[in-house]
Design a protein that fits this description.
Blueprint lengths: L2 E5 L8 E5 L10 E9 L2 H8 L11 E2 L3 E9 L11 E5 L9 E4 L1 E4 L6 H6 L1 H14 L6 E5 L4 H12 L3 E6 L4 H6 L3 E4 L4 H6 L6 E4 L6 H8 L5 E3 L11 E2 L10 H10 L8 E5 L3 H10 L5 E5 L2
Parallel strand pairs: 9-10, 9-12, 10-11, 12-13, 13-14, 15-16
Antiparallel strand pairs: 1-2, 1-4, 3-5, 3-7, 3-16, 5-6, 6-8
The protein binds NADP nicotinamide-adenine-dinucleotide phosphate.
């Protein structure tokens, strides 16, 4: 039997165990991937800790919203992909921290893109493209982005700038230069951020890719909740703000389009480092403690 990082319960990183699991079978329209690399997202940490129990997990769940590897088997009805093809996948039902993962949404990986970049792309790219689409920001409009230095924010900045949207990016001091390099106007996040944004002019829409705690400022700056979207703030409904969740058709072709940009050297990703997949508990510990200011991508030999 292959191995995976199994979640043996909700709790600290130690609930993650490298264990034998049944080989997953691809259903209709699905492929099975022999995984080379899998991204860790902040949502994985929140799920493991039990902060998102509204999103129930089965016993022995395997975390991971994204994984890159080679196609190992294809289910009924799959066309255009066959065994051995390099791909990266968005795993809406999780399962990335594993030697084999089953996917319904994937795109091909060009040779020029590394396994690590391929594994870091799907979840953040889908979220960035989806929220920009939902906000319907037009060329010439001003978008305020909270979390512009994060995995989603870095991609959202570049997609928006390419559409001639003016981006004001609320970031920490360490990400100001990055935001500027990507074409945004940085403002320092934290107390007083609303005043710093107002000093730059009016805001048409707000994308909260920061996590939590920015919605009061977001709604005030946008003049109401109508064009404010958050990816993860559980207080969204209290502010009348849309909480955007992934769905198969909310960002059509997001993976294809961002993978093409990556292959052409036209898309930068948030910096990432690697750890062997078996060390997923240690990776979660390091991310939670904040001692790494990078993403961690889990790798298999
Ligand atoms: N709903 C979905 O489908 C979906 C998909 C992907 C991600 N998410 C969620 O979206 C959020 C962002 O994901 P991610 O992968 O981009 O996370 P990430 O890489 O950790 O980025 C989060 C960024 O927010 C910044 N930040 C923290 N507090 C802030 C504040 N008050 N104002 C502005 N920025 C602030 C952080 O800066 P520092 O480094 O300075 O702390 C960091 O750069 C996470 O909560 C994640 O769980 C949801």
């Amino acid at each position: 039997m292959p191995n995976a990082v199994v979640m043996t319960g909700y709790g600290p990183p130690e609930v993650l165990k490298w264990a034998a699991v049944p080989l997953p079978e691809p259903g209709p329209g699905q492929i099975r991937i022999k995984v080379e690399a899998a991204g860790i997202s902040p949502t994985d940490l929140a799920l493991r800790a039990g902060y998102l129990k509204a999103f129930p997990l089965p016993p022995d769940a395997v975390l991971g919203f994204e994984a890159a590897g080679t196609v190992d088997a294809a289910g009924p009805g799959v066309t255009g992909t066959s065994a051995g093809d390099p791909v990266t996948a968005l795993l809406l039902s999780l399962g990335g921290y594993a030697e084999y993962a089953v996917a319904s949404i994937w795109t091909g990986k060009p040779k020029s893109v590394s396994w690590l970049d391929a594994a870091a792309l799907p979840s953040s790219a889908e979220a960035a493209a989806r929220v920009l689409r939902q906000l319907n920001v037009k060329p010439g409009e001003t978008l305020l982005l909270f979390g512009g230095g994060g995995s989603v924010g870095v991609i959202a900045t570049q997609l928006a700038v390419a559409r001639r949207i003016k981006v004001i990016s609320a970031v920490g001091e360490h990400d100001e230069a990055l935001a500027r390099e990507l074409g945004a106007t940085p403002v320092r996040y934290g107390p007083g951020v609303a005043g710093r944004v107002r000093a730059l002019g009016a805001v048409d829409a707000v994308f909260d890719a920061a996590g939590t705690g920015v919605l009061a400022d977001a709604v005030a700056l946008a003049g109401g909740p109508g064009r404010v979207i958050t990816l993860s703030d559980p207080a969204a409904a209290d502010f009348g703000v849309t909480l955007s969740e992934a769905a198969p058709d909310r960002a059509p072709r997001a993976l294809e389009e961002t993978m093409a940009l990556l292959a052409d050297g036209k898309l930068r990703l948030r910096a990432h480092t690697t750890m062997p997949m078996q060390q997923a508990p240690e990776a979660h510990r390091q991310l939670e403690s904040g001692i790494v200011h990078q993403r961690i991508i889990l790798t298999l030999p």
